Amino acid sequence: MLFRTHSNGERTLMPTYPKTAGGRPAWAAALLLMWLTALAQDAPAPGATPEDTVRTLHDALVETAAELGDASLEERYARLEPVVEATHDLPYIAELTIRREWDGLSVDDRQRFVEAFERLSVTTYASRFRRLEAGMFEITGGESLAGGRAQVAATLTTKERAIPFQYVLHETDAGWKIVNILADNVSDLALKRAEYRRLLEGGSVDDVIAELERQTAEAAAAD
Fold first, then answer.
1. Cα torsion through 159, 127, 189, 100, rounded to 10
2. 46, 64, 131, 159 - which has most CB atoms within 10 Å?
3. At 169, phi and psi to the nearest 5?
4. Which value, to the nearest 10 degrees, does the dihedral of the CA atoms of residues 116, 120, 121, 123 take?
């Protein structure tokens, strides 16, 4: 037992705390566990299934539209950025769009291209889906694909018509992530590949990055 000696000469018993196996007080270990739990709750959860990933994206788009539909693009961007990054394998998609040229790029050029691609991707979501309402997105099915991939079918029902979506996903250490989206049976990845290929035939990756930045600015201006 430990005692504390006061100025008047009295001695009182000092409180003691149970120790963990590592020698730390149990209350310190509990506090650390609470802090780590809070961090985990703040971050978007990885997709345990392909449907979970798509549902996480849909829910975030609907919630952002409901809460920030009339807010600035910057606010919607800040809300959606972590969700888009958690549900999409953006670096992998960026590489796929210029796969033929990827190996010949420097590390710096790769990073600049991926960053520009990610900014455009998040800005597109933030600007195009500001008027969503609950129930407009509906997951209608899912299936396994070759190569360990999966596909999730969904429908976006607007006032004009129902638009079919197919999400193609692959599994990563962080869960299932989207690698391509077909909207109305048109592949977003195929469109980007063709567009970037044209730019690279007569130019360089700098021309592609400049076009990505132009499209990002255009989407922001049209918001």
1. 170
2. 64
3. -130, 155
4. 140
Residues 6 or more apart in contact with residue 102 via CB below 8 angstroms? 95, 110
- Phi–psi pair at 159, nearest 5 degrees: -65, -25
Question: Based on the number of CB atoms within 10 Å of its own CB, is 165 exposed (0-12), middle (13-18) or buried (19 or more)?
Answer: buried
**Mean pLDDT across the chain, nearest whole number?**
87
Whether 202 has a pLDDT exceeding 70, the answer reads yes
pLDDT of residue 223: 82
